[in-house]
Write a structure and sequence with these properties.
Blueprint: E1 2-6, H1 16-25, E2 30-32, H2 41-50, E3 54-59, H3 77-94, E4 98-100, H4 112-133, E5 136-140, H5 155-165, E6 170-175, H6 176-181, H7 186-193, E7 197-202, H8 216-227, E8 233-236, H9 250-258
Parallel strand pairs: 1-2, 1-8, 2-3, 3-4, 4-5, 5-6, 6-7, 7-8
Helix pairs in contact: 2-3, 3-4, 7-8
């Protein structure tokens, strides 16, 4: 269960090349970049290769008008596919294998069933394109406090969409933080979703700070993940309380937990 530094949130105040260098210096072997579209993909690949870092995850681009994803928006199908192809192009150049497909927020004047049908149709098209490129697409439930109005906020809702799409290319991205913000039983949610989980992220439920390894729910979920043989990435997607590097002291407890010393 390797840790990936989320460079969109970690090392604030630094440029992306500086964040990449800092993550490598801090011992990370992988990184997440939510929207890596401001830098040419070849340049991004060069920086990652220079520091021997793997790009573990990117997101599909936001909409031209700032939409938090396009996959469920009726009438935005062409824009969605253009964005997906842009993400696939980045993956091809950087050797990233995972794309989080942002569902978006249904418009107020659109019927929920129409948005759902749009999402399913878009995901089936996206899965065909991703599968041929050897890319896995992930879907993530986002909590209602941070992302009110997002298409899904429960892992079970995501699992239902995945079942309807019916493609092994579509998997679940589980974020401990979003589960806990929804006051869910974290370990139960994780165990329920285990067959579908392809990528994991975590942060403290309090202010989305450094992961709290004194939280029994977090420890139980990590142990369940390890016991299940999960070998994917665990993304560190949080807002550092102060200096990012200094705040990484929590990783000692994480390692102790994996070694059954915690």
């Amino acid at each position: 269960m390797k840790l990936a530094a989320n460079l969109t949130l970690l090392y604030p105040g630094l440029t992306l090349p500086e964040r990449i260098r800092s993550a490598a210096q801090d011992g990370f072997t992988g990184v997440e970049i939510l929207f890596p579209y401001d830098m040419p993909a070849k340049e991004l690949a060069r920086h990652l290769q220079a520091h021997q870092l793997k790009l573990a995850l990117i997101n599909t681009p936001p909409g031209a008008n700032g939409e938090k994803g396009l996959a469920c928006l009726p009438g935005a199908e062409t824009q969605f596919l253009v964005g997906l192809k842009q993400a696939l192009d980045v993956c091809q150049v950087t050797a990233c294998r995972n794309i989080h497909v942002m569902a978006g927020m249904p418009p107020a004047d659109a019927h929920p069933s129409v948005c759902r049908s749009t999402l399913i149709s878009n995901l089936r098209k996206a899965a065909a394109l991703a599968s041929s490129a050897g890319i896995t697409l992930t879907l993530e439930a986002l909590n209602r406090d941070d992302m009110p109005g997002y298409f899904y906020y429960l892992p079970a809702q995501v699992a239902d969409i995945i079942a309807e799409v019916g493609s092994p290319t579509i998997r679940l991205q589980l974020d401990f933080y979003h589960c806990q913000r929804e006051h869910l039983d974290l370990n139960q949610e994780l165990c329920n979703a285990l067959p579908l989980i392809h990528h994991v992220q975590f942060a403290s439920v309090v202010q989305r700070r450094e992961p709290d390894l004194t939280d029994p729910a977090v420890c139980a979920a990590l142990r369940s993940l390890q016991s299940a043989g999960y070998q994917g990435w665990v993304g560190c997607e949080y807002h550092p309380e102060a200096d990012t590097s200094t705040g990484l002291a929590w990783r000692k407890s994480y390692q102790a937990l994996l070694e059954h010393r915690l």
